[in-house]
Amino acid sequence: MFKLMIVDDSSIIRNRIERSFKASEFEIVATARDGVEALEKFKEFRPDLITMDLTMPGMDGLSCIQAIYELDPTAGILVVSALSDKMTGLLALEYGAQGFIYKPFTDEQLIEALTKIAEQKPTV
Hints:
With about 120 residues, the chain is of the alpha/beta class. It is globular and about 30 Å long. The mean pLDDT is about 95. Strands 2-1-3-4-5 form a five-stranded parallel beta sheet, sandwiched between helices. The longest helix is centred in the C-terminal third of the chain and has 14 residues, at about 105-120. Strand 3, helix 3 and strand 4 (about 75-80) form a beta-alpha-beta unit. It has five helices and five strands, in the order E-H-E-H-E-H-E-H-E-H. Helix content is about 45%, strand content about 20%.
């Protein structure tokens, strides 16, 4: 069972991602509306995997990815963003994200991308 945190400023997207993982090997341990809240909840819940929006008020996704990576370089981060700017996607990967999918997405795309990251995580 993998612990999952969902980070997105849109409650619609957070709820949609939660519904995608209701009956799966992923347990949703936290949700966050922005990077600041995500960092607090990351420290508290230590999720294995994170879905991360890039465009959020306060601390954006790129800054949050960097901060989480500094705390735990093994955290599995999947960027889920409407941004189609390739440079931003490459930066997210450079900062520590392991995958990137674009909004809108299907449940299958989301589950497949997160499963791929989960399979690559080092086992402790």
